[in-house]
Amino acid sequence: MGVRILFLGPLQDLAGEAERTVAAPLDWAGLLSEVGPVIAEQLQVERLNIACGGRVLADKTSLVAEDGDEIALLPPVSGG
Questions:
Q1: pLDDT, tens only, 52-64
Q2: Which of 76, 43, 77 is nearest to 61 (CA)?
Q3: pTM across the whole model
């Protein structure tokens, strides 16, 4: 089953795909490794949030995703 990573907004363009499934378990270091250097650099930005299992993480470096979890990479949103 694995962990499903969703690339939202401009991250989808950078990743070249909307989602990717990777092996579980997955922690912060594993996520940075799995998404590649361009996305990993974006994840370091403070305003970019990560949701795991439908909940936004207060500290994204505390990520622990298990088999069947979904991680959403949430770029900052602008609008009026």
A1: 999 999 999 999 9
A2: 43
A3: 0.92
